[in-house]
Prior knowledge:
4-stranded mixed beta sheet
Amino acid sequence: MNETPNPIKPMLQSGAAQVKTTPPLGTRINGDFITHYATYIHDDLYSKALVLKCDDTVVALVVVDICVMPREFLNPVKADIARITGIPASHILISSTHTHAAGSVADVHLGSVDPAYAQKLPGLIVESVRLAIQNLRPAQLAFGSVQAPEHLLCRRYEMQTDYRPFNPVSGGDDLIKTNPFGAESSIFRSIAPTDPELGYLAVRGTDGRWIGLLANYSLHYVGDWENGTISADYFGVFARTLGDKLRAGPEFVGMMSNGTSGDVNIWDFMYPERYPKAHFAKSELIGSDLASRVFQSVDTLEWKSDVLLDATLENVSIPVAKPSSRELETAAGLLAGARFETIEPDQEGLKQIYAREQILLNEMPDRRECPVQVIRIGDGMIGGLAGEFFSETGLYLKENSVAAHYFTISMANGNVGYVPPAEEIVKGGYETWRCRYSCLMPGAEDTIREKLLVLAKSLADARR
């Protein structure tokens, strides 16, 4: 009697690579209300790629040291990667770390695109993926998780009744204040929980040599530097420190991605003495501490080589909230007296900046496409959302995940700006002020997060 031979299990392969993307001095920097220009390079920026291959399925996870990259910028990049490597665009996730000390490829308020850098960066991103594929070798992977709540603060505050948070769009008052600089004595409390988990995907060769580690933490950039600085912020510190602690070779690529941190930072308004104040001291402390926690946990990991890989991506069409004809008339009146060349982001300056936003927002299409992606890696999943989502969204997705391990990478495959939960839009605050960077209709967050859960379930059901 002939016995049916056992099928050969597909062997996981992985490769990683990083390509320097540091812009030259003089390059425009966005992420503030106005444009800054690079005058000092503190540390280099990179496009970092981790490629996983099992059987005929390949996925690429790319993290770029930059503030934001719009969908219109990234779609051609993904098309080039697909053409050169054969990896489907749906299986490629490209995200921004959200450092505010990098070259600009997107307009944000008065922070403008640097045309030369926007032309240069795509090829560097493509090259990082190409090199990662070139480095493919037999591998094993594991998902890990540590808790790091100390470095997370909800930056949206209820204020004492004698303080009136100003809204430059409506001209009225908000119910909360984001980043209450100068009003610390009027703080009542921060209003929302944060996500304390630092989740990660670790990959090493079957020979034990490290390949890469992709971490995810829901903390905005730290920003403890002067304007004009180029720096990967705490994301870069984490990667360098982790490589040193692991005693990994030069082929190791450490990656820190931004989680759901639209309402979170580490500017401690209530206890300002908690962190050192010297330039780069806080980002060094936080990045090093996070790396130490991951390093201390890797001995507990369960490594696997026989894993299923799969991915899916859909674009969700969301209506845009636009100004009324009366609001446009008011905005035009404010612009008549504006001097944007010398503007300061004080109360009067913010009114003019947001008046400009209303005019430009009105010229935009009535709907925006938000890419929603899920990548399945064994018993874990990684979600990709193209915007700045609040911790509430990330916590909800983790609570309802169908995978044993899950985290959300934000600012992935594009950027639709802030996507607050509907109840937070009612409260107001900087993240909700209507502009090109915060313009989706209330309810968008619910629609997008539910689409991600549907996609995750489809992957879980497809290959049980």
